[in-house]
Amino acid sequence: MVAGRLRETLNREDLDRNDRISLFHCIRNLKGKEEVLDYFLEYLPTEENPTMLIYAVWCTEGVRNRQLQELYVRLMDKYRTNENTKFGYKGSQMVLRGGACMGASRPEGQLMSNLMRQFEYFGLDYRGGFQLLMDEGRWKEWKRQKGFGAGFLS
To answer: What is the reported pTM?
Structure first.
């Protein structure tokens, strides 16, 4: 029922991108985000705007669900080779004073950063997570080890 109301609200014609982002901010603060999981299982595979995906992934933070993780991996597969993601990767490898890194500044790179944060079991820092994504062999091996093999993606 909650997911249905959320879908109705987000699909309203009179909402612009900023209105939708504001709703995602509200959802992020929900204690029971699992109540709207059905909506995101339908929404994430169909949204084409990386900026909207940044917020959708961000507001599902903390939800533990295998289907959702599979969607995250599919999104990583889709966007990890995008030119803006590669730009974000380069920024993530630049170490600043104090040991921090520049991070991603373009939507696709920010999306990848948000997706990486959803996987506690990456076991990598930000720079290492991007290195894993940019290395075709390591990425395939990581997916295989975590059960996100070729069969699930076809």
So the answer is: 0.82
